[in-house]
Amino acid sequence: MSAVHDLGGRPGFGRIEREAREPVFHARWESRVMGMVYAIRRANWLNLDAFRHGIERMDPARYLAASYYERWLASLERTLPEVGALTPGAAPPPAGPYGFEREVGAPARFAVGSTVRVRARKPVGHTRLPGYASGKRGTVVSVRGGYVFPDTNAHGLGEQPQHLYSVRFSARELWGESAEPRTSVCIDLFEPYLEADPVPSSAEETRDGA
Amino acid sequence: MSAVHDLGGRPGFGRIEREAREPVFHARWESRVMGMVYAIRRANWLNLDAFRHGIERMDPARYLAASYYERWLASLERTLPEVGALTPGAAPPPAGPYGFEREVGAPARFAVGSTVRVRARKPVGHTRLPGYASGKRGTVVSVRGGYVFPDTNAHGLGEQPQHLYSVRFSARELWGESAEPRTSVCIDLFEPYLEADPVPSSAEETRDGA
Amino acid sequence: MAHEHDHDGEHGHDHAHEPSDPEAARLALRAEALEALLVERGIVRRESIDAIVARYENEIGPLNGAKLVARAWSDPEFKRRLLTDARAAIAELSLPMGETATPIVVVENSPGVHNVVVCTLCSCYPSSLLGLPPRWYKSPPYRARVVREPRAVLREFGLELPESTDVRVWDSSAELRYMVLPERPPGSERASEAELVELVSRDSLIGVALAGPPAEAPRER
Amino acid sequence: MAHEHDHDGEHGHDHAHEPSDPEAARLALRAEALEALLVERGIVRRESIDAIVARYENEIGPLNGAKLVARAWSDPEFKRRLLTDARAAIAELSLPMGETATPIVVVENSPGVHNVVVCTLCSCYPSSLLGLPPRWYKSPPYRARVVREPRAVLREFGLELPESTDVRVWDSSAELRYMVLPERPPGSERASEAELVELVSRDSLIGVALAGPPAEAPRER
Q1: pLDDT tens, residue by residue, B37-92
Q2: Is D119 one of the catalytic residues?
Q3: What is the 3-state secondary structure (H, E, C) of B34-92?
């Protein structure tokens, strides 16, 4: 049972509303919020994972009703006090290495072509494992290297870098009988989300997910 | 990935707001909507399952933001035209047997004490299988008799009565490590939602779920 | 028990937020328009709606449940019938009830076992017996949380259960409606059945409170 | 390609709904208050925000992606580099870019293979390269539906794919950002690289449209 922000595959949503000649921002405050987030992150006051977790903790009804930049604003209001940024005289944590790519101590467990099974999504806290992939079997299509692990980094538990994989799932594996034909979804998944699956994908899945 | 109305176990919700000296209705229109729903159902214009499915098809953001009677109103506005009730001169379908209890042709597959496993929730349409029970193992604690099957009745596919069971699940089976101790959930599940599970519940589960 | 519905005794609920809130005004208009259409098409009669509303506002309420519980506490044979065939037992008391298409199931609290009721998929509630449910029962936070963390939810309601107590949540996902038979409070051994009725709050029938004198739960009955 | 951001060329967006909508006014006030506090505490400078906003309003946009695609169509060696090491290939063009902490991955459409990009958990998008994403990309309906029924979603965008085409959805759930390399449109064999740039819309870089003359997709570029 996944939180409301975890939207992939959730039924009940209707038409996708598009806007002709859409401006970059729909109001001046949106541009200020965007600029604040970029500037605060540049000043190392907020890591991306904690910022996202701030969004995910919004009231679920408000989350769905809010515009994108309202979610950003709500997360700033929540997370900046949490990290102590608004305490007079506070200094940001020392800047670590740039970006998200990191060395991982251990070798990668999986290789291109490995069949893997996704573990159950952890029930609490931040994660980048989409609920619709929980328990599903897929095939590694790319080994992406080591990256900061959001599940710990969002909670002040360190970067704990992990190997990242692009894993392809056939639509039939994900959605069963209601799947569209010849369709697959590729998801970027961290090694701790995955376990080896000795059962090779079926012929049907290989065709759909090739 | 379950629809938004399927709320059991969904993380992210906060404090439960209570109201001292709460009135039966919070506005006159709420009482009129309640009365309309009861009167329309009494006139056999709407079956309960189709009415619920009407609620479930609300926009997810609106569903969460709406009050209870707003959901009822939204479902009436959607389902009454669907069943033809607003067509001038239309007559309601003939009244069937009272209530929801029905004879089932086949004997019940499970008995008190049977261990069962819940099948995957069907991805589309109305069902009364809560998402958090999907794939979980539990024990039948009561065989309730035959009942109208909501999964067909909501869609005009007939009552197709099925055996109904109360099935107990340990919190650990449902929620894993984050489960509260000595806690269980009992869910009323129709026979098509269940399959026999040859693996008996573990001692731990029996203790938690007794 | 105190009747909970005596907010003004009259029809018509002009709550402060109704006229001032444009969203509420739109909802009121939609409801009024739909009612007018249904009446015009001969699908419902205003008088039927009036009668249904009046019945649920003034007659059907938690007092029904309190009477059943007080009788069960006073009469072990009645209690046995209530737990095994609630429909028949309820009929014995000739209570003012709504349509009883959905059978009631009564689940019993006992030393070491506490029951609590929810409907996670919509908001099923034994309305025919207990009247319409309170808002919190229908709210997403209650529906989402009580199956996953019932002890934490009960704590929010002021009810701290011993670790040794089994907590049993009933998710009313089909057409059975659950009512809790709370434990008879200590010290009530000599109370009359009429006095016992006063000890049974709506919340104790849902399972988010214990039965007891109203003073113990002043904030929410 | 036509620059998409030329709504007025000036700072300050006084859209009609902003002053009249009380909810929007409250959001504007909250944002203004937070900015004032952050400036007062010395955490950010207004000028830094101004500069970031100006850069994303006026410089960084889908034109970057269009230039990469046109070069890849014109130069097979560049295309090979773009598909195997996008970061290095992008650097060759000296495009106006934002912070590039997240590597770009380019996925190639070919006869029988169509790619489309989404972020179901939030709204990750190759902003450093393509500018800020359109609203629909960040909307719950797109995020919920495109992984489950990509063909139906693409049909809504006016793109009907043959049944024989493999549809590959990329859910950018980590710190990689995906851009689609669309197929070179038939009939463009003799176009110059500058002319090819005009054929590449933002939507074709996300995968909800094919590359082609603007006339083919008048409603939404």
Answers
A1: 999 998 889 999 999 999 999 999 999 999 999 999 999 999 999 989 988 888 88
A2: yes
A3: HHHHHHHHHCCCCCHHHHHHHHHCCCHHHHHHCCHHHHHHHHHHHHHHHCCCCCCCCCC
Q: Say if CB D204 and CB D197 are below 8 A apart.
A: no
Determine phi and psi for D5, rounding to 5 degrees. -105, 10
Q: Which residues of chain A have pLDDT under 70?
A: 199-210
Helix (H, G, I), strand (E, B) or coil at D146: coil
Q: At what angle do helices A68-82 and A28-42 cross, to 10 degrees?
A: 40
Long-range contacts of C105-108 (CB under 8 A, 24+ apart): C105/C176, C105/C177, C105/C178, C105/C179, C106/C68, C106/C82, C106/C178, C106/C179, C106/C180, C106/C181, C107/C168, C107/C170, C107/C178, C107/C179, C107/C180, C107/C181, C108/C83, C108/C180, C108/C181
Q: With a CB-CB cutoff of 8 Å, which residues 67-96 of chain B face chain A? A: none
* Beta-strand runs (E) in chain A: 115-118, 137-147, 162-170, 183-190, 194-196
Q: What value of ipTM does the predicted structure carry?
A: 0.84
Give the three-class secondary structure for A188: strand
* Cα gap B39→B28, rounded to integer Å: 17
pLDDT in tens, D93-116: 999 998 888 999 999 999 999 999
Catalytic residue check, C172: no
* Residue C128 designated active-site: no
Contact call for residues A40 and A76 (beta carbons, < 8 A) = yes
Q: Which two tokens stand for residue D108?
A: 């190639």
Tokens 């759909």 belong to residue: A208
The single-letter DSSP state of residue D15 is: -
Instruction: Tell me the C-alpha distance between A80 and D41, whole Å.
Output: 12
Predicted pLDDT at A80: 95
> What is the rounded CA–CA span in Å between residue B10 and residue B6?
8
Do A5 and B64 meet the contact criterion of CB atoms below 8 Å apart? no
Orientation angle between helical segments C62-74 and C76-84, nearest 10 degrees: 130
Q: Can you give the pLDDT at residue C116?
A: 98
Alpha-carbon distance B205 to B174, whole Å?
A: 11
Residues D55 and B15: their CA atoms lie apart, in Å, by 42
Q: Residue A120: its chain B contacts at CB < 8 A?
A: 176
The CA distance from B205 to the nearest CA of chain C, in Å, is: 13
Give C14-30 as a DSSP string.
Answer: --THHHH-HHHHHHHHH
pLDDT digit of tens for each residue in chain C (221 aa)?
434 333 333 333 444 444 568 888 999 999 999 999 999 999 999 999 999 999 999 999 999 999 999 999 999 999 999 999 999 999 999 999 988 889 999 999 999 999 999 999 999 999 999 999 999 999 999 999 999 999 999 999 999 999 999 999 999 999 999 999 999 999 999 999 999 999 999 999 999 999 998 754 444 44
d(CA A33, CA A28): 9
Q: Are A107 and A62 in contact (CB under 8 A)?
A: no
DSSP 8-state class, residue A114: -
Amino acid code (one letter) for A32: R
Distance CA D134, CA B185 (A): 43
The residues in A 173-202 lying below 8 A from D, measured between CB atoms, are 174-175, 178, 180-190
